[in-house]
Design a protein that fits this description.
Strand order of the largest sheet: 2-3-1-4
CATH class: Alpha Beta
Number of domains: 1
Helix content: 40-55%
Number of helices: 5
Structural class: alpha+beta
Protein name: NIPSNAP domain-containing protein
CATH architecture: 2-Layer Sandwich
Order of helices and strands: HEHEEHHHE
Mean pLDDT: 93
Organism: marine metagenome
InterPro entries: Dimeric_a/b-barrel
Length: 106
Amino acid sequence: MTEREKMTMVSQLRIYTINRGMMDSWLNLFHNHLKPNHEKYGIPIESSWVNADRTEFIWVRSFDNVEVIQAKEDEYYSSPERIALGDQPKVHIAKTEVRVIEPTNS
């Protein structure tokens, strides 16, 4: 990995297929618990969307560079707030896709 790659801000495009009938519950969990906790632990949520069929939840979270992703995720997942949620996020999600992306203007 080059020095430039280490210094480039990166994002994760995350696409979750939400279990049938659980989108409203998922949105409540995401906006009231997951998003604030991500931001508290230094993982900003850039934006989020729901597809027209309301079966997929799409969101983007950002990191300073690829080198910090694992440490930031470890910090978030081991936080008291995330531990208190237990498997609530997992029971909503049927499928997860994650793509690491970088801006084209860097």
